[in-house]
Design goal:
Blueprint (H helix, E strand, L loop, with lengths): L1 E2 L16 H6 L2 E10 L10 E10 L3 H15 L7 H4 L5 H12 L5 E8 L7 H5 L1 H21 L7 E7 L6 H14 L10 E2 L2 E3 L5 H18 L9 H5 L17 E4 L3 H4 L4 H5 L1
Parallel strand pairs: 2-5, 4-8, 5-7
Antiparallel strand pairs: 1-6, 2-3, 3-4
Helix pairs in contact: 2-4, 2-8, 6-7
Length: about 280
């Protein structure tokens, strides 16, 4: 796989562009992506669709293998972990164990993007095409991943992106969409920090994709709960230290980006604690 050329970096970035030689010497971060909610806009569709990226620095990769392998052993399964199947709402103790373990993985970062469909300004074409909507949301998420790897707290890195495969979707088209959009970018996003192209994989191929599914499950639990319910967000709150923030500590727009009205999240009773 080749790195995207460094010339795509924004000249206004605080960190100057890296040369190809400098990029090749940077430490790696493994990025795993999953989704939650549905992509439809019908009257029976969910009000939201979310995607999340879990960024695992190479030095924490062993922790991920131990956590996911340990959870499978505790549950007593050889199957890939899936939130809905293995961590359902009645599995309270199992959910807490997963939350405790993933929140302790060192130096991990999480980025969420969520579309609030009732207030989202989307074209008729996008509303009619769930695949296009998925591609657009993936693009928005990867933009934030690129910025995070460029200016990581522990220093710049290069990222290898692996996404959970979506059943029934032609990911060759997904890749073509992302590559075409990247090629038209005017230099505002440091794409040179992502190995290109990103790849889609089944959950059985990488523990990190199962890890991303767990994080999206915890995020989902907070979103489907009542806006006045603190308990539904306890797992999200437990890993708030892992969610990407700006240099001055802001969460909204950095580690969590809402497309549509931000009140969808910010008016929830647990938001001030998440942001603290």
């Amino acid at each position: 796989m080749d790195l995207v050329g460094a010339a795509t970096s924004s000249p206004s970035s605080v960190i100057p562009p890296f040369t190809p030689g400098e990029l090749a010497s940077l430490p790696q971060v493994e990025v795993y992506v999953d989704e939650s909610g549905d992509r439809g806009f019908s009257t029976t569709s969910s009000d939201w669709f979310a995607m999340g990226a879990v960024l695992v620095p190479w030095e924490s990769a062993a922790h991920v293998r131990v956590v996911i392998g340990g959870l499978r052993q505790e549950i007593g399964t050889n199957k890939p972990l899936h939130w809905t199947e293995h961590f359902g709402a009645k599995r309270v103790l199992r959910r807490r164990l997963a939350s405790d373990l993933v929140a302790a993985i060192p130096d991990l970062r999480v980025i969420y993007v969520v579309a609030h469909k009732p207030t989202l300004r989307a074209s008729a074409a996008m509303r009619a095409d769930g695949e296009m909507f998925y591609h657009w949301m993936t693009w928005l998420l990867l933009e934030r991943v690129a910025h995070e790897t460029r200016g990581s707290t522990g220093g710049a890195r290069v990222a290898r992106v692996r996404l959970g495969a979506v059943k029934g979707m032609d990911h060759a088209r997904s890749q073509a969409y992302l590559s075409g959009t990247r090629d038209r970018d005017q230099g505002s996003v440091p794409w040179e920090h992502l190995y290109w192209p990103p790849k889609w994989h089944g959950t059985d191929e990488y523990d990190g994709i199962q890890l991303a599914d767990i994080y999206l499950g915890m995020f989902r639990a907070a979103l489907v709960g009542d806006a006045q319910d603190m308990l539904c967000a306890e797992m999200l709150l437990q890993h708030r230290h892992q969610i990407r923030r700006s240099t001055d500590g802001r969460l909204l727009g950095f580690g969590i980006k809402v497309y549509g009205q931000s009140a969808f999240l910010c008016d929830r009773v647990w938001w001030p604690e998440l942001h603290s």
